[in-house]
Amino acid sequence: MKILTVGGAMVDAIAIVDSDQIERITMRNADTSYLLMEEGRKTEALDISTHCGGGAVNAAVAMARLGHDVSALVKLGQDSRADQILTGLESEGVSTRWAMRVAGQKTGASLIIASHERNAGIFAFRGANTTIRADDLKPEAFGVDLCYVTSLSNESADCFPEIVARAKAKGALVAVNPGIRQLSARQGPFRECLDRIDLLAVNRVEADALVAGLAGKFGEGGAKIEHDPDRPLPDLLTRGFEGGGFHMTARAYFNALADCGPRWVLVTDGRDGAFLATEGRLHHCPPAPAEVVGTAGAGDAYCATLASGLAAGLEPAEAMVRATLNAAAVVGHVDTQTGLMDAAALDAARAAARIAVESWAI
Prior knowledge:
CATH class: Alpha Beta
Largest sheet: 9 strands, mixed
Number of strands: 19
Distance between the termini: 32 Å
Strand content: 15-25%
CATH topology: UDP-N-acetylmuramoyl-L-alanine:D-glutamate ligase
């Protein structure tokens, strides 16, 4: 299968810090915690390393390892970070023919602090990632089976409707994994593209950002999911979705998005697994057991594996289990790519896995 990924390319510098060396504060009444560093003090790290990353790069590597013919449309500067990214992609068999290098720009970079529960804090410099323009989108790049669009910011986000239009014009299946910045600052143009998106993949925070717009069109509240009272629903399905002062039940939320166009709607919820709505059913796959070393890249691994699986014709439950296993392999490493499995390894993991996917009518 031919695949194009579009979006971010970064070089990640990852610092692993022992929990005794950095303080953490968790808010009592919110799902939020903070890592605290003392000003003027040098903090000892267990290790500091650099790796290739970024949404489009991580997704490209994930799908290339699964045996697909993948190319990446990314924008880089003229610097050593760009050299590292291009070398890394080529070593994974990802085509760089659509990668652009721009004089006077710096390649994106991030600093990842991994400590305590390894739910990393990340400083991001987006650099050339924000400068994709319409004339960078060569029509021939979109002659693929699957176009996978990751988070876009600033000028690049302005191109999102054109990216989707060019992919659909070539008959590609379009999978989109937007970021919170895009959904917050450019939600109007994003929503206008929903009828041309096949798979929408967001995490819980990003899902909440869509509530106000959906509630304005479809109304608040909504019917709840009918279920066996002896089998409690996962927390997200009980809580529903909230944003901008509006609330929608999970059933109403997923149905509203389906009415907007996407065939598949995915919401990931960390330790509570992932939820995939399609054809009047909502599927839930719990996470696979894993020793967490770092969480960066887990979402990219999940969404890329799911998108390529669905595009290849897998049933939703099977695609979800495979995505869960690949994401679990990623969190066993500090960086975003070391744990990504090839097709044979994923097949073996799937054969050994005992993961039950539940589903409900919506």
